[in-house]
Write a structure and sequence with these properties.
The complex is a heterotrimer. Chain A is of the alpha+beta class. In chain A, the strands form 2 sheets. In chain A, strands 2-1-5-3-4 form a 5-stranded mixed β-sheet. In chain A, strands 6-7 form a two-stranded antiparallel ribbon. The radius of gyration of chain A is 21 Å and the shape is elongated. Chain B is α/β, with parallel strands linked by helices. Chain B has 15 helices and 22 strands. In chain B, the strands form 5 sheets. In chain B, strands 1, 2, 6, 7, 8, 9 and 17 form a 7-stranded mixed β-sheet that branches. In chain B, strands 18-16-10-21-22 form a 5-stranded mixed β-sheet. In chain B, strands 11, 12, 13, 14 and 15 form a 5-stranded antiparallel β-sheet that branches. In chain C, helix 1 runs antiparallel to helix 2. Chain C is about 70% helix and about 5% strand. Chain C is built from 4 helices and 2 strands; from the N terminus they run αααββα. Chain C has a single domain, classed as Fumarate reductase/succinate dehydrogenase, transmembrane subunit (3 helical TM bundles of succinate and fumarate reductases, Up-down Bundle), CATH 1.20.1300. In chain C, strand 1 and strand 2 form a beta hairpin. The chains are: A alpha+beta, B alpha/beta, C mainly alpha. Chains in contact: A-B, A-C, B-C. Chains A and B meet through helix 1, helix 2 and helix 3 of A and helix 3, helix 4, helix 9 and helix 14 of B.
Chain lengths: ~250, ~575, ~130
C-alpha cells in the first residue's frame, strides 16, 4: 500500500466569520486506494476539526456526500484518488446556497420532491388480505431504473437550467414522478401531469443531458423528462383533437 | 428556547421511525407527530441494507418454520412471545410496503419472489434486487409525504430526554443549522435511532450509527439489554468494511480459504453442498455467528488469505455466471469493482467478518414499550428481543416495520389511556440544564484530548478485547480502557466554536454516546461467562443454560461502570435445543 | 439566528464556458441559427419563385456567390451534426419494451435515419433526380 501526498483545496465558509467563501489548502498523506472522502476525513481528524461536511454510508447509497471535485459534481465516497492528480479542488455542490463549508442548503430540492406527489396513487382500493399486486418482471423493469435515485442532487448541480432558473423542478424530482407514472400499480399520471407538464416542470428542460451524465446510479433523468414531454404532448393532442375521448 | 408542543416525538427517521410516523398518522389524523432526525430521512442507514426482508408468504412455508428458524438462530435467547408476534405480523407488513410501491423482485407470474437466506430452512426472504433496504427506505420516505400531520425536523440532533413524574415527556434537540437547542414537549416519545456499529473500527455501518438513541434511553435510566451480542457479518469488504450481502450466498456463492477449500464443512455446517446449489441452513447458508467464528478459527490455523488489508477469505461467485449476477446482485458487482477493482464474475473477492448489527439495545416489551412510561423504542436501537444472541439475516428489515408500527400503536394507546399533562415548569428547567451542558462543552478550554484520538482508542480496544472471541483478560482490559476514555472525555475541547452546522460539536456528542454504549457492551460481555450465539468466550466455551438463559440488563451509573442485572427469557413453544446447521 | 446561506450565482452569459459538456451543448444549440438563416433563405427563394422566372433566376444566380456557397456548406454541416446528435438521443425519449427488455438504442435511432433517408429519396425523386 503506497502513499501519495495530495493537496486538497477546499472552499471554506463560516457565515458567522466570513463575508464570502475562500479556499483553504491542506496537504494530506493518503493511501493509494483512498477516495476523496477519506482524505477529507483525514483533514477533519488530524488537521482541522472545523471542517464541516456531510457523509455516512461510504458506499454511494445514502447520497450525503455530493461535492464539486475539480469542477465535476461527484460523490466524494466514490471519487477514487487514483483518478485524480495530486492537486484536488473540493467545493460544495453547485446551484445550492452554501450553509457552511461543504454543506449546502437543500430545502428547495425537498420542496420540489414533495410537490410531484412521489407516492403510489392507487388504481384500486386493495386490502392487505388481497395480497400483493401482481407485477410481472417486465412491468417492474419499466420503472425500476427511475427508482434507483439516491437523492444525491448531483444532477441539480450539473443542470444549467436549474442554476439559471431556480424555479425548475429539476431532474431528480421529475424522474421520480416518472417512476411512479410508469409503475403498473399507480394511477396518478394525470394528476402529476398538472404539476410536471408545466413551465417549471419538463418544459423548462432543454435536454442539456448533463444530469444523466453525472448521475452515479444511472437513473437517466434526462430520458425520464423527455419521455414525460412526449407523454404530455400526446395527451394534449388527444384532448384537443379528440375531445370526446375519455381522459 | 423555541418550544414545540406535540403529541408524539419520534427520534430517528429510518425504516422504523418512518413506519411509526405513518402508522400514527393513519391511526389518528388528529395526532401531531414530530419526526426528528439528525440527517435527512433518505440518508438513514436503512438505505445500506441489501439482502431482503423475511416473511412467510409461500405455500411451502409456515409460521412455525419461521418461528423455529428464528428461535434456533437466536440460540434460544430471544423472547418467544415476541417472535410469535413478529412472524405473524411480518407478511402483512411486507404486503403493505408492496401496496405503497416497494419494487419487490418478482416471479414470472407476477407474485413476489423470495430468496434463500442464512439460517432459514425455507426460503422466505422478500427482496428488491440487492438493494432492499434502499428501496424500503425510499418507499417509506416517499409514502410519508402523503401525511400532513407528520412534521419533519430534519438535521436536528436529539441531546436529552425530558423525564418528569416518572414519565417521559419530551426531548431537547439541537437545530444543527443554527446551533440552537429546541425543546419538544411530547406526550409520548419513540426512539428509532439505530445501532452503534461505529464503536468498532471495521463495520458495515455508516458514520451516523453512533448509538445516540440507545444512549438517550440509557442515561434516562432505561436498561440496555443484551448489549454483549454484536453481530459480525461474515462478508464485508476488507479495508472499507462495506457490506456484500448474504444474498450472494443465497444465490449460491461459496467461501474458500487460501487452499481453495470450502472450510465451513469443518465447523459443523457440512457436508459440502454442490457448487451453485446451496442447501438452506447449511454450509454458506448457516447463521452469521457461526460463519464469522469459523473465519476466526481458520485465521488461527493460518488458512486465511493474507492481503494488504489483513487476513481474508475468498467469496467465489464465478460459477453463478454474468447474467445471474447482473440480475440478482448488480450492486454487489458494482461495489466490488469500485472499491476492490475486482469483478466477481471472473475473480475471487476477498472478504472478512465486519461488525454489522447490534442484537442488544433499549429494553422493550413486545409492544415496544420501555420500562419508562411514555417512552417506546423500535428497530435496531431496541431489544425486544426477537434476535436473542444472533440475528438471522433479513429479519431486521421486517423488524423495523413490525415494531415501528407496534410502537406507534402503543404510543397512541398510551396517549389515549389518560390525561397526559406535561409539567411545563419542570420541563423548561430540564431543557435549560441541557442547554447548559452544551454551553459547558463550548466554554471548555485547555483541552488535552482529541475527538479522533479518543474514538480511535475506543474502536481499537473494542475490536481487540470484545471482538468475535473474548476472554476474561481481554474484556477486563477493554472495560478498564473504556472507563478511562469516558473519564478522559472531560478533556475534550471543541476546536470549532461556531454555531452554524458545527460538526465538531456533533462529533463530540456522538463520541459521548458511543463511549457510554461501548462500556455497556464490554461490561455485559465480561459478565456473561458462557458462549452463546455471537458472544463467544475462549475461557467459557459452552452454552450454560442453567445460569445464563437470561437477558443481561445494563443500567447507567453516571461516571461509574454500568450495573448488570438479569431478566429471564420468555420460552413458549421451543425449549432450548441444539443448533444444528449440518446438512445431515 | 446566525445562518447566512451564501448563493453562488451562475454567470448568466458565460456559464457555458465552465466545462466541455456545456460547450458541446451550446455548440449543438448554435447550429439552430444556421438552420434558421437557411430556412429564411429558402422561404425567400420560394417568394422569388412566385414572382416569375426572371426573379427566380436572379435568386439562383445570387446563390452562386462564394459566400453563399460557403454559408450553405456550413449550414449543411451543422444541420447534419444537429440531426445526428438528435437522432442519437431519440432512444432516450422513445422506449420500446419488447418482452422484459428494451429494444436496443439502434432500433429507434435507426428508424429515424431510415425515415430521413426515405424522405430524402422522395424529395430527390420529385425534384427529378
Amino acid at each position: 500500500m503506497s502513499e501519495r501526498q495530495i493537496e486538497l483545496e477546499i472552499l471554506r465558509y463560516d457565515p458567522e466569520k466570513d463575508q464570502a467563501p475562500e479556499f483553504q489548502t491542506y496537504s494530506v498523506p493518503c493511501q493509494e486506494e483512498w477516495v476523496v472522502l477519506d482524505a477529507i476525513n483525514y483533514v477533519k481528524d488530524h488537521i482541522d476539526a472545523t471542517l464541516s461536511y456531510r457523509w455516512s454510508c461510504r458506499m454511494a447509497v445514502c447520497g450525503s456526500c455530493g461535492m464539486m471535485i475539480n469542477g465535476e459534481p461527484v460523490l466524494s465516497c466514490k471519487a477514487f484518488l487514483r483518478d485524480y492528480p495530486d492537486r484536488i479542488r473540493v467545493e460544495p455542490l453547485q446551484n445550492f446556497p452554501i450553509e457552511r463549508d461543504l454543506v449546502v442548503v437543500l430545502d428547495d430540492f425537498l420542496e420540489k420532491l414533495n410537490r410531484v406527489k412521489p407516492y403510489i396513487i392507487p388504481k384500486e382500493n386493495r386490502s392487505l388480505e388481497d395480497g400483493e399486486h401482481k407485477q410481472t418482471p417486465a412491468q417492474l423493469k419499466r420503472f425500476k431504473q427511475y427508482s434507483m435515485c439516491i437523492n444525491c442532487q448531483l444532477c441539480y448541480a450539473a443542470c444549467p437550467q436549474y442554476g439559471l432558473t431556480g424555479h425548475f423542478i429539476g431532474p431528480a424530482a421529475l424522474a421520480l414522478a416518472h417512476r411512479y407514472n410508469q409503475d403498473s400499480r399507480d394511477a396518478g399520471r394525470r394528476e402529476r401531469e398538472e404539476i410536471v407538464a408545466t413551465n417549471e416542470g419538463v418544459w423548462e428542460c432543454s435536454f442539456v443531458g448533463a444530469c444523466s451524465e453525472v448521475c452515479p446510479k444511472h437513473v437517466d433523468p434526462a430520458a425520464a423528462i423527455q419521455q414525460m414531454k412526449i407523454g404530455s404532448l400526446i395527451d394534449w393532442y388527444q384532448e384537443h383533437l379528440m375531445p370526446w375521448s375519455k381522459r | 428556547m423555541q418550544k414545540i408542543d406535540t403529541d408524539v416525538a419520534i427520534i430517528g427517521a429510518g425504516g422504523a421511525g418512518l413506519r411509526a410516523a405513518i402508522a400514527l398518522a393513519e391511526a389518528d389524523p388528529k395526532l401531531r407527530i414530530a419526526l426528528i432526525s439528525k440527517v435527512y430521512p433518505m440518508r438513514s442507514h436503512t438505505c445500506a441494507a441489501e439482502g431482503g426482508a423475511a416473511g412467510v408468504v409461500k405455500a411451502d412455508d409456515s409460521f412455525d418454520q419461521h418461528f423455529n428458524d428464528t428461535v434456533g438462530g437466536s440460540d434460544w435467547l430471544c423472547d418467544q412471545d415476541a417472535v410469535e408476534v413478529f412472524i405473524n405480523e411480518a407478511p402483512r407488513e411486507l404486503i403493505q410496503l408492496e401496496h405503497w410501491g416497494c419494487p419487490w423482485s418478482r416471479e414470472p407470474d407476477g407474485s413476489v419472489a423470495v430468496r434463500p437466506f442464512g439460517g432459514m430452512k425455507i426460503k422466505r426472504t422478500w427482496f428488491a434486487a440487492d438493494k432492499t433496504g434502499f428501496h424500503l427506505l425510499h418507499t417509506l420516505v416517499q409514502t410519508s409525504l402523503k401525511y400532513p400531520t407528520i412534521e419533519r425536523f430534519d438535521q436536528h440532533y436529539t441531546t436529552d430526554l425530558l423525564v418528569e413524574d416518572g414519565r417521559c415527556q419530551g426531548c431537547t434537540a439541537l437545530d444543527m443549522r443554527t446551533g440552537q437547542l429546541k425543546q419538544f414537549n411530547a406526550r409520548a416519545v419513540i426512539i428509532c435511532a439505530g445501532g452503534a456499529g461505529r464503536i468498532f473500527p471495521f463495520t458495515t455501518n455508516g458514520a451516523i450509527k453512533t448509538g445516540d438513541g440507545m444512549a438517550l434511553a440509557y442515561r434516562a435510566g432505561v436498561p440496555l439489554k443484551d448489549m454483549e451480542f454484536v453481530q459480525y457479518h461474515p462478508t464485508g469488504m476488507p479495508g472499507t468494511g462495506i457490506l456484500l450481502t448474504e444474498g450472494c450466498r443465497g444465490e449460491g456463492a461459496v467461501l474458500l480459504n487460501r487452499h481453495g477449500y470450502r472450510y465451513l464443512q469443518d465447523y459443523g455446517m457440512g457436508p459440502e453442498t454442490p457448487l451453485g446449489h446451496p442447501v438452506l441452513k447449511t454450509m454458506e447458508l448457516g447463521p452469521r455467528d457461526r460463519l464469522s467464528q469459523a473465519f476466526w478459527h481458520e485465521q488461527q490455523k493460518g488458512n486465511t488469505v493474507p492481503t494488504q488489508w489483513g487476513d481474508c477469505v475468498h467469496l467465489d461467485m464465478r460459477h453463478l455466471g454474468e447474467a445471474k449476477i447482473n440480475e440478482r446482485l448488480p450492486f454487489v458487482r458494482e461495489l466490488a469493482s469500485s472499491y476492490l477493482q475486482l469483478d466477481p464474475v471472473t475473480e475471487l473477492i476477498p472478504i472478512r467478518p465486519v461488525v454489522h448489527y447490534m442484537m442488544g439495545g433499549i429494553h422493550t416489551g413486545i409492544d415496544a414499550e420501555t420500562p419508562l412510561p411514555g417512552l417506546f423504542a423500535a428497530g435496531e436501537c431496541a431489544c425486544v428481543s426477537i434476535n436473542g444472541a444472533n440475528r438471522l439475516g433479513s429479519n431486521s428489515l421486517t423488524e423495523l416495520l413490525v415494531f415501528g408500527k407496534r410502537a406507534a400503536l402503543s404510543a397512541a394507546a398510551y396517549i389515549d389511556s389518560g390525561e397526559k399533562t406535561l409539567n411545563d415548569a419542570a420541563l423548561d428547567k430540564q431543557a435549560e440544564e441541557a442547554q447548559g451542558r452544551i454551553r459547558d462543552l463550548f466554554l471548555k478550554t485547555n483541552g488535552t484530548e482529541s475527538i479522533a484520538g479518543l474514538r480511535g482508542e475506543m474502536t481499537h480496544t473494542m475490536e481487540t478485547g470484545a471482538g468475535i472471541y473474548r476472554t476474561e483478560v481481554s474484556l477486563n482490559e477493554t472495560c478498564e480502557k473504556i472507563a478511562e476514555l469516558r473519564h478522559r472525555y472531560a478533556g475534550i475541547e471543541l476546536q470549532d466554536k461556531s454555531n452554524v452546522f458545527n460538526t465538531d460539536l456533533f462529533s463530540a456528542l456522538e463520541l459521548k454516546c458511543m463511549l457510554d454504549v461501548a462500556e455497556a457492551v464490554a461490561v455485559a460481555a465480561r459478565e456473561r461467562k458462557e458462549s452463546r450465539g455471537s458472544h463467544q468466550r475462549l475461557d467459557f466455551e459452552q452454552r450454560d443454560d442453567a445460569n445464563y438463559l437470561k437477558h443481561s440488563l445494563a443500567y447507567h451509573q453516571g461516571d461509574q461502570s454500568p450495573r448488570i442485572d438479569h431478566l429471564d427469557v420468555v420460552i413458549t413453544k421451543s425449549p432450548p435445543g441444539v443448533r444444528d446447521y449440518s446438512g445431515e | 439566528m446566525s445562518r447566512r446561506p451564501y448563493v453562488r450565482e451562475l454567470p448568466r452569459t458565460t456559464w457555458w464556458l465552465k466545462n466541455g459538456r456545456y460547450k458541446r451543448y451550446i455548440a449543438r444549440e448554435i447550429t439552430c441559427i444556421f438552420i434558421g438563416v437557411y430556412t429564411a433563405v429558402l422561404l425567400f427563394g420560394v417568394k422569388r419563385l412566385s414572382e416569375g422566372e426572371a426573379a427566380y433566376q436572379g435568386f439562383l444566380d445570387a446563390l452562386n456567390h462564394p459566400l453563399f456557397i460557403l454559408f450553405h456548406l456550413l449550414a449543411l454541416g451543422f444541420a447534419t451534426y444537429n440531426s445526428i446528435t438528435w437522432f442519437g438521443v431519440t432512444p432516450k425519449a422513445i422506449r420500446i419494451q419488447v418482452g422484459e427488455d428494451f429494444a436496443p438504442d439502434g432500433v429507434v435511432a435507426g428508424a429515424h435515419y431510415a425515415g430521413w433517408i426515405a424522405i430524402s429519396l422522395v424529395v430527390l425523386f420529385m425534384a427529378g433526380i
